[in-house]
Specification:
This protein is an alpha/beta fold and 219 residues long. The protein is built from nine helices and six strands. Bound molecules: 1,6-di-O-phosphono-beta-D-glucopyranose and magnesium ion.
């Protein structure tokens, strides 16, 4: 099947908003007296805001009602949005812009498939809002990754069958979402964590479309 589009996760693939999610969750976890480490944060990558909060509360054996949970989620989000607003274009991850240029040159279409309800703001802050044909974010889906909804919506928005779309993901839940949607997936990051992906790259530095096709074909 000939690939005609790339669907990019946002956080950890296009921009390192993960460090801001970490700082904001850590602040909340500290207030709740819950131990919060980078290893724990790994489990929240690609996972929705409410599910992330539930995971933190569970690890601290904290039981709250819905309204209290909404308040905590809003608190975390306010901190996170403050970090996003201070972001600049140079926080785009290495090699991303030249990879986008190269796939454009190869007539490959581009979409964002992100769980984040703040995806639009993050993309604007790094000045890439005009580089994507389509953005599907957390405000447009009702089921979180590993459900494939976000990527299937991106494929159908592009007017393509899933098999013609290649997903780029930095989180296990996202790789599983791509596979659940019958799409191939390139893991971006640590191969020890992303071993389920079809191929793994450590970043987009020195990666072009030919490299990706070669890696996929050598599988
Ligand atoms: P928000 P992605 C995900 O973005 C993040 O990886 C995850 O840590 C976050 O909880 C989720 O978005 C929701 O974000 O609170 O901004 O709606 O990796 O799917 O681009
Ligand atoms: Mg991600």
């Amino acid at each position: 099947m000939i690939l005609k589009a790339c669907i990019f996760d946002l956080d950890g693939v296009i921009v390192n908003t993960a460090k801001y999610h970490f700082l904001a969750w850590k602040k909340l976890a500290d207030q709740l007296g819950v131990n919060f480490t980078h290893a724990f944060n790994e489990r929240l990558k690609g996972v929705s805001r409410m599910e992330s909060l539930e995971t933190i509360l569970k690890s601290g054996d904290i039981i709250l009602d819905e309204q209290e949970k909404e308040e905590l989620a809003a608190k975390k989000n306010n901190w996170f949005v403050k970090y996003l607003n201070n972001m600049s274009v140079n926080e785009t991850l290495p090699g991303v812009v030249s990879f986008l240029d190269d796939i454009e040159h190869n007539h490959i279409r581009k979409a964002i498939g992100s769980a984040s309800k703040n995806a639009g703001l993050a993309i604007r802050k790094i000045g890439l809002e005009d580089r994507f044909d389509l953005i599907i974010d957390g405000t447009m889906v009702s089921r979180a990754k590993p459900d494939p909804e976000v990527f299937l919506k991106a494929a159908s928005g592009l007017g393509l069958p899933p098999a013609q779309c290649l997903v780029f993901e930095d989180a296990r839940a996202g790789i599983q979402a791509a596979h659940n949607g019958e799409m191939k997936c390139v893991g971006v990051g640590n191969p020890d964590i992303l071993g389920e992906a079809d191929v793994v790259i450590d970043s987009f530095s020195n990666i072009n479309w030919t490299t990706i096709l070669t890696l996929l074909n050598s599988k």
